[in-house]
C-alpha cells in the first residue's frame, strides 16, 4: 500500500510540475488539460483522476506557491496576538494594493481570473478561497481571539472566519479599482491608502483605537512579510 501511495504522490507531483510549465508558457486561458497531460506523458483520463478540472489544477499550484513562501510561513508561525493580527492585515492589504503596479503582472492577471470566475461558474474562486481560508484563516482567528482576551478588541459576531473574509474582500475590492491604468476611483492614487484601509479593516473586525495606534506603525522585519507583498499576492 505504501508503494501505491508513493506512486500516486509522485504522479501528482509530475502533473503539477508539467502544469506549472504549461501555465507559465501559455497562461491559464491558453493551457488545456490535454496539453498538461501530454507534457506529463499521461492520458487526460489519468490527469482527471488527480485533478478533475483545469481550475482545480491551477488553484492547487497557487496554493503550493503560497505555502512555500518563507515570509508567510514565518508569519503564520508567530504566536497568536494583537500584533500578529495587525501584521496579517498589513500583509494582506500590502499584497493587494501592490499588485496593480507591480512590474510582474502575473498577480494582477490572477486577480482578473478571480473576477471572471465570479462572473462565470465560480469554480476557480471557490477552490482558491477554500485553500486560502484553510491556510491563513486559523492564524487570523487565533490572533483575533487573543486580542479579545487581551482587551484590545471587542467580539464582533459569532464567526471569526467571516471577519477574515470581510477583511480579504475589502482589500481585494480596493485593489480592483486600481487594476486599470487609470484607477476607477480617486482614492486609487492616495499615498496613504494602505494605512487608511488597514485602519478601516482593523476597526471593522473589532480592534480598539489604542491597540491600532500601538501596533499599526510598528516596524516589521522584512523576512516576516510574504514575498507577494514585497515582490508584487
Number of strands: 0
Q: Which fold does the CATH topology of the largest domain refer to?
A: Tetracycline Repressor, domain 2
What is the count of DSSP helices, taking H or I runs of 4+ residues? Answer: 12
Distance between the terminal alpha carbons, to the nearest Å? 39 Å
Assigned CATH architecture of the largest domain: Orthogonal Bundle
Mean pLDDT: 86
- Broad structural category: mainly alpha
- Major sheet size, sense and barrel closure: none
The gyration radius over C-alpha positions equals 19 Å
- CATH level 1 class label of the largest domain: Mainly Alpha
What level of helicity do the residues show?
55-70%
- The topology string of helices and strands comes to HHHHHHHHHHHH
- State which percent range the strand residues make up: under 5%
Keywords:
2 domains; mainly alpha; disordered C terminus; Tetracycline Repressor, domain 2; 12 helices
Task: Describe the secondary-structure layout.
Blueprint: H1 2-26, H2 33-39, H3 44-50, H4 54-68, H5 70-76, H6 82-98, H7 106-119, H8 123-149, H9 160-176, H10 193-204, H11 209-215, H12 227-231
Helix pairs in contact: 1-2, 1-4, 2-3, 4-8, 6-8, 6-9, 6-10, 8-9, 9-10
Amino acid at each position: 500500500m505504501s508503494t501505491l501511495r508513493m506512486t500516486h504522490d509522485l504522479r501528482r507531483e509530475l502533473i503539477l510540475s508539467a502544469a506549472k510549465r504549461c501555465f507559465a508558457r501559455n497562461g491559464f486561458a491558453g493551457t488545456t488539460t490535454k496539453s498538461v497531460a501530454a507534457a506529463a506523458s499521461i492520458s487526460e483520463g489519468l490527469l482527471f483522476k488527480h485533478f478533475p478540472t483545469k481550475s482545480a489544477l491551477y488553484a492547487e499550484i497557487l496554493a503550493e506557491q503560497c505555502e512555500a513562501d518563507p515570509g508567510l510561513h514565518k508569519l503564520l508561525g508567530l504566536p497568536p496576538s494583537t500584533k500578529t493580527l495587525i501584521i496579517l492585515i498589513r500583509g494582506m492589504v500590502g499584497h493587494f494594493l501592490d499588485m496593480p503596479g507591480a512590474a510582474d503582472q502575473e498577480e494582477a492577471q490572477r486577480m482578473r481570473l478571480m473576477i471572471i470566475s465570479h462572473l462565470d461558474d465560480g469554480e476557480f474562486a471557490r477552490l482558491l478561497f477554500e485553500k486560502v481560508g484553510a491556510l491563513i484563516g486559523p492564524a487570523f482567528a487565533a490572533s483575533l481571539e487573543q486580542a479579545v482576551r487581551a482587551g484590545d478588541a471587542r467580539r464582533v459576531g459569532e464567526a471569526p472566519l467571516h471577519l477574515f473574509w470581510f477583511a480579504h474582500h475589502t482589500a481585494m475590492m480596493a485593489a480592483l479599482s486600481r487594476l486599470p491604468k487609470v484607477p476607477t476611483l480617486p482614492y486609487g492614487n492616495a499615498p496613504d491608502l494602505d494605512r487608511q484601509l488597514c485602519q478601516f479593516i482593523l476597526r471593522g473586525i473589532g480592534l480598539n483605537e489604542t491597540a491600532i495606534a500601538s501596533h499599526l506603525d510598528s516596524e516589521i522585519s522584512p523576512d516576516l512579510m510574504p514575498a507577494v507583498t514585497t515582490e508584487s499576492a
